[in-house]
Amino acid sequence: MTAYDKTDVVIVGSGFGGSIPAYHLAAGGAKVTVLERGPWLETKEFEHDYLLGSSYTRAFDFVVGDGMSVLGGNCVGGGSVVYFAAMPRAPKFVFERHGSIGRRMWPSALTRDSLEPWYDRVSESLPVSTQDWNDVSYAGGLWAAFCNHSGRTANPAPVAVDNDRCVNCNFMMAGCRFDAKRSLLTNYLPAALAHGAKIRPLHEVQRIERIDDGDYRVHFTIVDDEDYRLQSGSGTIDAKVVIIAAGAGATPVILQRSEAALGTMPHAVGRYFSGNGERLNTAIINEERVREVLGLSREDGKVYEANHIGKGPTVANWDKLDGSLPEYERYSLEQLYFPPGLGTILAQVPDGDEPRWFGVQKKEILKKWASWLTIFLMTEDDNEGVFGAPPPTGNAYRISQQMLGRGPLKYDPTPNTRHGWALADAECKEILEKDGLAKVAPWTNDVVGAYTVHPLASCRIGDDPATSALHPNHELRDHPGIFVTDSASVPGALTVNPAMTIAALAERSVPGIVRALQARGVDVTYGAPAPDGSITGRRAVGKLSLVAGS
Asked: Which residue ranges does the record assign to the Glucose-methanol-choline oxidoreductase N-terminal domain (predicted)?
């Protein structure tokens, strides 16, 4: 089956980078079509298990590269459906980072202060709230107690969670069936639909070409609902503007595959990939020492009680988010729940014999799964990831029916990146092992290389054409009318969860996209309220909208 259509705007992907422009452009009067390669799952379809074929595997994309593996969302709503909803704002020093290029990597017009009104807009739209200590899980409180005992501080993380709806089931990584997690399915996407936007699930974009009238033609295939290796049709859709928001692991692949038709891509397309400097450490808790030293215990004596109590990240240590520290020595440490599967495979045995990720000793710590505490480390890396030649279709060579693929990303961590990892690992170990409270070890890199759930920067914005794929307004260099608004556009590691910054940048990009559409004869305006009708954020950014794309 083949299909053909025409619209004003095609948006590739429905995560933060896709849903936010979809709402604003549709509300402003443009005809908008969103192409999403994953399924459209309803709330009732989010299952409380991690079995193959469940919402867990249907909604995820896990791509193994050479030295780096990427876990991302694969469904309508994108990463917002499977994220843990932690929404901190990036520290000010992030915007001044030099990284691997030796000079400021962010556009000169973009600072934390200039992004603040756009952060406010996102906070209002989702909305985002600051938790107090009554909202945190036992695991989060335990991490806070560890930090306090070792002379550090701890903070409840800001989250996009309705705590009145949350039942503390800890299944939010497989999608929230209570609509407590404020994914894009609860705000921007339904608002976009209300204004006439069309969302087409299971449509995987393969390439883009320029047609004779100056518009763009987007080529897609239709993916089977159960076996993502199979295709049931193909088609094209023409548009005056194309917004690519397929995620940092897929956006550059689409552009690379389009080069034959579109012409030479900017040098930075598929380069400077960042894994947000991420690491995971597993602590095996000594419950008896925790009771003796910290005076803390659960009734059953276990931190998690067979895995499912509480939320994902609820408490973070931000002591090292200090702009006076040297680059690569700044990081955050966040308590995290990671479900069975990769967590049990990649966790290493503290103080075990090498290798420590399998064998008899590993079997013994698996018996203590209910008393693990996982700490998520977000550091500064060197943007050393590079994408090789794209696969024939999709962003990876599909290995299994769902979820698993082999991708073209190559990642060889530099001494700078390894230095940041080592410092964060050492800090984590010092906090957790004080007075015999726990034993800790980083997850292994032997199985799938380094790993990230927050891929960034593979088509980043910047002032320098040699090191950035996008103009500061998110338009692809030398290809007017193509914009990238997802995590690929973020210049580098943020040292915190990136969803809030990705969303704020997407908000900031919309006025420039509106101007591009107007220049192409589309009757569209900018200025819609937040999805729920709030206008405080609109007023805050109104005077910025004229210059945001400059």
From this structure: 68-271
Question: Is the Cα dihedral 333, 337, 340, 342 positive or negative?
Answer: negative
| CA distance linking residue 511 with residue 193, whole number of Å | 20
CA count, 13 A, side-chain hemisphere, 501:
30
* Prediction pTM value: 0.95
| Helix axes of 112-125 and 499-519: crossing angle, nearest 10 degrees | 90
Please name the residue that has the structure tokens 């007017």.
480
In angstroms, rounded to a whole number, what is the distance separating the alpha carbons of residues 14 and 21?
10
Q: Classify strands 9-12 and 404-410 as parallel, antiparallel or unpaired.
A: unpaired
Q: Provide DSSP, 423-481.
A: HHHHHHHHHHHGGGSEEEEEPPSTTTSEEESS-B-TT-B-S-TTT-SB-TTSBBTT-TT
Q: Can you name the residues that pair with 401 across neighbouring β-strands?
A: none
C-beta separation of 281 from 106 below 8 A:
no
pLDDT tens column, 340-371: 777 788 888 888 777 788 888 888 888 776 67
Rounded distance between C-alpha atoms, residue 430 and residue 31, angstroms: 55
Choose the CATH number for 3-528 among 3.20.20.70, 2.40.40.20, 3.50.50.60, 3.30.70.920.
Answer: 3.50.50.60
Written in H, E and C, the secondary structure of 397-419 is EECCCCCEEEEEEECCCCHHHHH
The pLDDT of residue 143: 94
Q: Are 65 and 56 in contact (CB under 8 A)?
A: no
Count the alpha carbons within 13 Å of 32 in the hemisphere toward its beta carbon. Answer: 33
- In this structure, what token pair is assigned to residue 412? 């060889």
